[in-house]
Amino acid sequence: MSQSSTIPTYVVGVDYGTLSGRAVVVRVHDGAELGSAVHEYRHGVMDTVLAATGAPLPPEWALQVPADYVEVLRQAVPAAVRAAGVDPAAVVGIGTDFTACTMVPVVADGTPLNELPGLADRPHAYVKLWRHHAAQAQADRINELAARRGERWLPRYGGLISSEWEFAKGLQLLEEDPELYHRMDHWVEAADWIVWQLTGSYVRNACSAGYKGILQDGQYPDRDFLAALNPDFAGFAEEKVDHPVGALGAAAGTLSAEAAAWTGLPAGIAVAVGNVDAHVCAPAARATDPGQMVAIMGTSTCHVMSSDTLREVPGMCGVVDGGIIDGLYGYEAGQSGVGDIFGWFTAHFVPGALREEAAARGLSVHELLTEQASREPVGAHGLLALDWQSGNRSVLVDHELSGLLVGLTLATRPHEVYRALLEATAFGTRTIVETFAASGIPVTEFVAAGGLIKNAFLMQIYADVLGMPISVIGSDQGPALGSAIHAAVAAGAYPDVRTAAGAMGRLEHAAYTPDPARTEAYSALYAEYTALHDHFGRGGNDVMRRLKALRRHARSTQEVSA
């Protein structure tokens, strides 16, 4: 196939987010997005009770139902093709991306454990979503043992493994429900499980394997290390995780007849190797050169960038050879809570009068608070926040940390707190950018993508806090477009992802520029943020950890009483 073909051809990109899946139909030769559709997961996120039984879940759990992912293929893909008005026969490939690390326990044929008879009431039989943080104790043990033994792979992850990742969650499964652990044949990233449903074959993607599965230089942590964590865990890597790895942009297989019936697409078209939602976004933003950091800003933020240099960056989520673009080292960092924090505040701490005002003016609560907050100068609220309501992913890698708000008075108003939360996430990003620069990986261009780029005030805050221009992706569906780009490569329309990104991606350079006076004012606030960050995050005071321990104890006592 040639990109210069006179007959238009199309690809489909499917982006699996935290609450929904979205499909977009893209023209191969120029990346034009012709139609899209969104399907919300019927069960959403199970973080308080198990949907099948109504039984309460412990703190820090976050589960999903894998059948909801298949429904996205049945609903969103056909709807997007209809919206695009294209002939399904002209679609030549499909690509997908997923939140990560999101894990599915399955038997040999790919059936999730929760779908087996008698297991619907077992929480560990379900998908563990990326923001399932209940494996922090297991992550702590992995980190302590790896540091003590001097494991060579540990510095590739900034010195710490996250509770969100494959090994910590797998160890939690073993230790809390060993029967299910032994019934499980594969511990599968959802990114690979959905491709398995599309093709009928299981191919592990290089991105998830490297960043979330501790695969470095072709090797996982060895049996001796795993056995030292738990004797029954010795075979985890080779028995539950290890599988042939597919390169990004390659074809994992072709669309099966069953999946063709779900989607309405032609059987036999190319299905791209799976990918992670953040990493796949870089080509969509034409950010394929060293030094371009892409921040995919949604419920959380993931920061990805490529470099021709291999360095150890404290607190990074990982560095993987070819993890984003072939031939370059791909780096990842992130913030566990961003849009989630803003949503949490508006859902629980905004008075009825403000909601009524927003409704009367035809605004969302977010829009009204943003309007009010934008009228005031930097620092006028007298507040400072730590953006750790979902823990800290980078650079501290500690999900026992929690949010903090300093400076409240009886005169404090909701829009002032809202602005302090917006600013806190920008300060968290600046911490990441500065850590990379100090490690010899400078950020030369900061590119924003994701749903939060619609808030122009937030983007200006980021430009002012960082003291550098903010470029913005030219698509509302960055991950889905990125998946479509990978589908085009898998279908043979382009020789590689970089070439496809040049033709199909889009970027507005320097859409927001910093104001020097605001940057100076924010630098004073950022110094205070850093002092709080280091005090509570680096051992100055462990009160956040103690409070979470007290919460877990109280909740468990309540459940036993009930």
TrEMBL record:
PROSITE patterns: FGGY_KINASES_2
Keywords of this entry: Arabinose catabolism, ATP-binding, Carbohydrate metabolism, Kinase, Nucleotide-binding, Transferase
Residue ranges constituting the Carbohydrate kinase FGGY C-terminal domain according to the UniProt record: 294-491
InterPro entries hit by this protein: ATPase_NBD, Carb_kinase_FGGY, Carb_kinase_FGGY_CS, FGGY_C, FGGY_N, Ribulokinase
Family: Belongs to the ribulokinase family.
Signal peptide, first to last residue: none
Catalytic activity: L-ribulose + ATP = L-ribulose 5-phosphate + ADP + H(+); D-ribulose + ATP = D-ribulose 5-phosphate + ADP + H(+)
GO cellular component assignments: cytoplasm
Top-level taxon in the UniProt lineage: Bacteria
GO biological process: L-arabinose catabolic process to D-xylulose 5-phosphate
Stretches assigned to the Carbohydrate kinase FGGY N-terminal domain: 10-279
EC id: 2.7.1.16
Pfam families listed in its UniProt record: FGGY_C, FGGY_N
Keyword Kinase: yes
Enzyme class: transferase
Pathway, per record: Carbohydrate degradation; L-arabinose degradation via L-ribulose; D-xylulose 5-phosphate from L-arabinose (bacterial route): step 2/3
Protein name: Ribulokinase
Gene Ontology MF annotations: ATP binding; D-ribulokinase activity; ribulokinase activity
Gene: araB
